[in-house]
Every structure is written in C-alpha cells, then in structure tokens.
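FtsK domain-containing protein
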Amino acid sequence: MARRPLPRILSKDSAQIARTQIARSRELARTAADSATDVLHPLITVTRGLRLLASAGRRRWADTPRDKRGPLLFFVASLVLLVALMPYGPLLAVIAVMAAAAWHGRDRTPPAPEGPDESQTQRLQALYEALVPYFSGADDPAPLYAHGGEWEKAFAVHEFDDAGRVAQLVIRYPAYFPDGEPEARARIEQLLTAKAGRSREYRFGWDEAGNQLTVTALAPLPADVPAQRFVTAPGETVLGFTDPSEVPRTLPLSYGEEQIDIPPVVWRTGIRSTEPHLLALGHPGSGTSTLLRSIALQTLQYGDVLIVDGGGTGEYACLTGRAGVLAVECALPGALASLEWAAQETERRLIAINLARQAGDPPPADTRRPLWIILDRPSVFAYLAAADGRKDPQALLGVPLRHGRAANVTVVVAEQFDSAEALSDAVRQHTRARVVLGPAAPEQVEAVLGVPPHTTPMAHVPPGRGYARLGSGPVHRLQVPRTPDPYDDATSDADRQAVLELLPPRATAVEAEPAGLGRQTDPAKPADPAEPMDLAKPADLAKPAVQNAPVAAEAVPAES
C-alpha cells in the first residue's frame, strides 16, 4: 500500500504557529548569545589582546635585520631565564602579559555622540523656525513655537541617517492647531517635505489625541525584482510589493543570486472576493502594461485569459497562441467579437450554475475555471467605434462586471489619465480594486483611490511605482515586478529570459481548433448588459466554452 505524501502547504493557523515558534526560537537564541557575550567578555578581551601582541611580535621580528636577530634572540632567552629564576617570577610574568593583553584588547570604538552634531542642530533649528507661523498663536501665553525659541521642547524624537538627513521626527504641536482639517495637514506635510528633502518619500502619522506628528522617511521600494513564480494560492494575484510595516505576509523571491522575503500586495479574486475587478491608471510609460502582463502570466497557471489591446503596440504579442490565452485582439472588429462572446459566456455560466444549484448539484467544471478579461486602453476603441458608428466595446463589459464574481469572471482595465473621462460608468462603478502608477498629483491619486495617499508623492519614480487600494482597505505603496515585453529590443537578456520562462507552451493544432466560444445565441441580437437576465430560462449547455483555445474571429459574428 503506497504511503500518502504529507501536504506541502500548511494551513493558515499552522503557518502562523510555525512563524511564532520560529520567532520565539530566534529570540531565545539571541538572548543566549547576548548572555554568553556578557559572561565571556573578559576572556574575549584578553584573547584579542594576545592576538594583537603576537602580531606585533611577528612584525618586530620580521623588521629586525638578519645580522641582529642572533643578539636579539640571546637577549630574549636571557630575560626568560632571569624571570624563571626569580622568586614568583613566572607568576608575575603571566600577570604582566595578561594585563598588557587586556589593555591592548580593550574596545577602542569611539562612543556614539550624545545628541545631534552642529549641522544636525542647524537643520532642526531651521525646521523649527519654518513651523513657527503655522503652530503659533497671538493669544498663546506660553507659546511652544516662537522665533528664536528652543527646538528641544518641540521635537520629542529626532533621528538621522548616515547621510545626515532626517530619518524620523516626532513633532509636538499646540492643541489649538486644526489637525482635523485636510488643508491644514497638507500645508504642514508640504513644508516638512521641502525642508527635509524632496528626493525621498515620507509617511506622516497624526496623533490627534496626543497632539503629535510622526514623520518617517521611507526607504525606496526595490524596483528591480524580476518576474517569477510567486508562492500564492489559486485566486491570489500579486500586484507588486510594498513596505514591511504595511502587510503581515512576505513572499520568498529570487533577487539576483540571493533569496529574500518581500511583503506583497495580494489581490484575491473569485466567488468570495469583495473586489472582483481592477482598474489601473497612469501616465504613458508608468508601467500599466507591465502590470497587466504580470497579472496575465500569473493567472494563466489556473485560468483562461482574453486580452484586448487598445494601444495597438504589440505589448502582448508574446501571449498569442499560448495555452490558456483565448485571444489577443488589437483591432476594433475582433475586440467587439471577443467582448460579445465574453458577455455571452458570462450569461451561460450564470445559467449553468443556477440550474446546477436548483438540481442540488455542484457547479459544472467549465464554470469553475476562472476567466480573465484584460483590457488595455479601451478608450482608443471607444473613439474608433464612435467615428465608425459602432457600439462602444465598454458597453459589452456590463454583464461581466455586474455578474462576473458569481460566474468566476474577472475584468482588469488599464487606462491613461488623459483618457480617463472615456471610461464607462460600469467600469468606474464595479472596479473597486484600484492602482495608480507613475508620478501623479495627490488630487489625482485621491480621485482614483477615494482617499489621499498616506505618503508624499515623488516627482521622479521608476516604472511600475505607485499606489494600490483594494476596496475600502488602506492605501499601499506599490512596486510592480519587472515584467517587460520579451519581444522588445530594449529588454535585457535576463528580463527577456525571465518572462519567456513564465509563458505557457504553444497551443497544439487540436487545441487551437475553434469548436465554439461558449453558448451561441442569436447572432443578430448581441448581449445587452442593461437587459436583466432570466436565470430560470433553459440554456443550451451542450456547448461549453472551450478551455485553453484561442478565440477565432469566425466563432462570433463581427461587423465587417
């Protein structure tokens, strides 16, 4: 009888217990090492001194000329003999050697200076003087902020980095300052950013109860993490990486020749997801196409992907004909046909699931496989459709957006800021997972995410850098993994190879043969997203959607 292998993936509780035990073991080992160092400190000091004395003796012997080494050796031997013949001579010699070793082996590291140096004091005084007009009042009998005042009373904590810049600052402010008004906070944050240095990002923590403001300089997120397989469960998609203090989870990643743990921003999709669809906005070159490529490569492990590229630059040509990629459409007729099929497939899945539930059966297998609809710059197709008198392709997204969670259908849309007005109301309303990439004003970030960012934006950021918010959760700093187009000549060999290794194999001729793209409806009557669905209406379920097959233009009627 074969022995069943143990499960490789621990449950959530088991993983939490294992992490707790590991952390406790590390803490015990660290405490034991510190205790041993304190007990053995004299022995360590004497050993270090003996090593230094021995090194000095070897150097002295090497520097002595050859003709003088004989008399020197005779003198040392005579001195040893004299000490050996003296009363208590060996004991006194050992005590003298130990004392010399302890003296030479002492810790000579200069003590850390207490308090800031002169340049740091001038920087703190400048910050204090700059805050006086905002934190002072004419009727305050004992003002905390006054011109020429003492900054020590206002700054409770101050830390500097190795470059002499402010790393952390805890600022006390008077109780009458309107810290509940966003405009007043924004003025203080803008002032501190300018005085502390605009080349970094800062997090501001307002303690309204204690009248304290904590300013923390954030380390830059790693921008060169290559595309790779992430350790995630089905239904989890890694959008990028964030600060260690933001999420309690880390992922093991290959970072060059090293293995590191980086906290990810994980987007969960599926039937139980509260944010089943995503919208990404950014300026040209901000990395929205990189984000869509990264999402597509991750979802192809367990689902099917339909890609509609409005940019027409061939950013997704590497996915054409791959297993699991239903289609990569770059023209308006193909986009309309593919999205119309997606709406019909969503309706077919809903009816099949409803009939299975009425019969008390589990959902069919073809409805449990996730279907992803990825649109890059749909506004381009909107302009072309308006000029040609055709329907806007975004109108066909109403059914997948409204009923996609129940049908296991996910929609991902990426658009640029200058064309954000062309997004349909359905896209704006049903994409509750939001991503903003590239340099953007705080007003733009707030308009997309719903709340202002918790850090100061930078003027110059690498591609794929921005913010993410999943539903009503907190705003996270985000850095998208480096997933460039492998067919681009500007892509390095290492990045090209990393992306090519993640691509699924080419679909065979049998798999690529179109056997129908889901439940076929009346070709003369396309799916209307505004029309309510009759889930009790029997459907032709004998023609399920083809898995792992690229979409053929003949399968869905398209306007010529």
